[in-house]
Amino acid sequence: MTEPDPAMPDPLRHRRIDAIDLARGLALIAMAIYHFTWDLEFFGYVGAGTTTVGGWKLFARSIASSFLFLVGVSLFLAHARGVRWRGFGIRLAMVAGAALVISIATYVAMPDTFIFFGILHQIALASLFGLAFLRLPWAVVLVLAAAVVAAPAFLTSPAFDSAWLWWTGLSQTRPRSNDFVPFFPWFGAVLAGIAAAMMAERAGLLDRLSRMTAPAWTAPLGFLGRHSLAFYLIHQPVLIGCVFLFSQLVPPQVETPQVQFRQACERTCSAERDEEFCSAYCVCVLDVLEGENLLDGLFSGRQNESERQTVAALAAICTDETERGPATGGNQ
Fold this sequence. Notes:
The protein is mainly α.
């Protein structure tokens, strides 16, 4: 970015800060990369479970964190000196409406894993709650942000297991959804953004950023950042449509459900255990799932709560047997 001529008058206090639009644009590009990889996995071009473990899992969480952090920053910039209710209401209605569209569309397409509380739902609710923190001292907001992030480790309880309370993120049962961004701990990222904006204002950083003009080559990123909601709604249908068309021309090599399960199981397991354990554990789980005729339901996603609890119990038995050693585990 370049500094303007110091002889020119100060910009308007409410001038849009280009750096925030660029940051939001970069986050959108990162999101599109992740979703494209998810689409490749969904159609079978990438191994099952690839986007849910390891570096891809961290990548997804960093993208969500950056979006919500920027929500907090923008909330402070727009309303710290008094809530502009008309503009806030219009923006909230747009985000909430888009969240509803996402829920309806994914319910029609994937009813067992539809998005009932994803990133847009979180942004809408967090924007509303965030207004209550704009006048607090930055240190208090920062402490509260840490408390919200830590809350699931201390407040998780069966009392929140009702489907109506899953959005809190405090239930012991993790619901099935293709995009689940519950209030706890993710609201902490919004509070962190508010606290960061407060500190930046005190340090004069926001004023300096408002005087800087982005270079011309960053214009596409800035455009995306200014139209983030439209890009979010459009990009995934376009990407998944392109992958679908490609699959009609070059179909993916589809492995058997058993091979897909073992690959996904071992990939997930390897994040916490060694290769030998994961290999034996996943063979054990596959055997018992096939023995109980639960494998097809697991792949289709059409499991009721009782079946999910059964799968969890069988997995726990396999964990115990595998840890006891090859003499008793892995092939029961």
